[in-house]
Structures are given as C-alpha cells and as structure tokens.
Write a structure and sequence with these properties.
By secondary structure, the chain is mainly alpha-helical. It has a domain of 79 residues. The protein has 7 helices and no strands. The longest helix has 20 residues. The N and C termini lie far apart (84 Å). The model has no long low-confidence stretch (mean pLDDT 75).
Length: 120
C-alpha cells in the first residue's frame, strides 16, 4: 500500500513538473488586414481545382479517349474558362450522384461541355 502511495505521489509530482515546464499560449485579436492577407484559396480557385480533379478521373478520361478528346486539351480549356463558367460546371459536378454512377445523359452533358471547351 505504501509503495502504491509513493508511486502515486511521484506520478503527481512528475505531472506538476511537466505542467510547470509547459509553455503557455497567448491569445490576441487579429486585425482585418491580417485576415484579408491570409493565403486561403478563394472559392473560384477551389471550384477550378474541383473541375480539374473531375477531368482527371479515370472513368471520364476513358470516356473522353473513346470520343477522341484529348485530356490535356480539356485541362487547358478549363484553365481558360472564366470564373462564372467554372462555377456553373462545379455546381453540375456537385449535383452528380455519389459513387461515380453517372447516367448516360450526365456523361453526354459533361462530354459536350468538354468538346465545346476544345472547339472554342
């Protein structure tokens, strides 16, 4: 019993020593300049990345190759799209069913957009 008490005391003193050595955090307020200057990606950048990631998907790449569309050209066209066009396409991607189960209509729609991007 005394050995257990001695062990418990040593453990408590060890924890006290660790807490004493631990550095404390300092809180402060950020001004609007600090918030605005943060390098967080904008919504347009996030949506553009989403569309590019969608174009890099294996199923879509296979489908585009079957239709004779080059994936690199499609990616370049996405880079040339305006933010409004990217936003519209990203919303359509978000509306797709989870799991990659695209209907024929949705695949045709995405491929038509990709073909339009290449032609333009």
């Amino acid at each position: 019993m005394q050995a257990l008490n001695a062990l418990f005391r040593r453990l408590c003193w060890g924890l006290v020593a660790l807490l004493a050595l631990h550095t404390s955090a300092h809180a402060g307020l950020l001004g609007p300049e600090a918030v605005l200057s943060s390098e967080a990606p904008s919504l347009a950048q996030l949506e553009r990345a989403k569309v590019q990631q969608f174009l890099e998907g294996a199923a879509l790449q296979d489908r585009m190759k079957a239709l004779g569309v080059d994936g690199l050209q499609a990616a370049q066209r996405v880079k040339a799209m305006t933010d409004a066009e990217v936003h519209q396409l990203a919303q359509k991607i978000d509306a797709l069913p989870a799991g990659g189960a695209l209907t024929d209509r949705e695949i045709i729609l995405v491929l038509l957009v990709a073909l339009l991007l290449i032609v333009l």
